[in-house]
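Example record used in the benchmark description.
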Amino acid sequence: MIVGHLTLKNRIVMPPMANELASAEGEVTEALITHYTRRAPGVGLVIVEHSYIALEGKASSRQLGIHDDALIKGLTNLVESIHAEGTTVCIQINHAGRKGRSSICGGQPIAPSAIAASDSHEIPRELEKHEIQHLVRLFGAAAQRAREAGFDAVEVHGAHGFLLNQFTSPLSNRRTDGYGGSFENRFRFPLEVVEEVRKAVGSEFPLLYRLGAYDGREGGITISESQALARRLLKAGINIVDVSGGLSGSSPDDMSFQGYFLPLAEKIKQAIEGPVIGVGGIKDPRFADEAISQGKVDLVAVGRALLTDPDWALNAAKALGHKTEHT
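Model output (structure tokens):
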């Protein structure tokens, strides 16, 4: 089936989930390849975990990297292994921003404003304008490496409290220049990143954006702002919007029910003319199938259930009687 610019065997997405299986230098390892190929057979789209575009944006000690041409060979091996299972594969590119730690990223973390991510995080250094433009170029270079490695798509990470999300949320962005204040200004950096990535990979290459639509705190990004950002993202070159949490992260404390981000994804879908991925603790194949058949979302991302049971997608097809027209 065709979803956006991607040809998928079904509408099940394995979302990006950091697993700390890369080498200390960010290289693909056999363990990482095994992790993905074990889960790929029944999945329509695998989105490989967030990969750092620069050493200063590294979030954890064994995070996957895409910041250096030397990593392309290993990434190619990963792509070929997933393709061998008949599955389409995307990679998510990211910068940790204020969620980084100097012991890992090699210096004081950077952010739109000098506001710590939490009491346990360091106070970051506020980015200067010329540094923001440099980061835009680094995102583009990372996307170009992804295409060279053979990935079918690239996802730009704008959620879960990482750098791009830090710019869009008024809770983490207190700038008074052209990159802060109004929602127009807060959206500027993410949109510049998307435009640069689109330029780097060409006009037809599929692009996704993980949109942090829920901060979980008063004064955070609003759903109307998220809808406006989604519309801008499509104009800037995004093909599929992947709706998740903002500063609240991927699993907010106040949300434990199945499909907790689906209402947000449905509101985004109502605001744009483009495919939307819904996520949020989805475990039941029938629940996932209904989200598609009822038109709430176009694809469903199943994360922790796939971590627990690598055959979840294959078993879902059996449980649904191979209803591939939906799931």
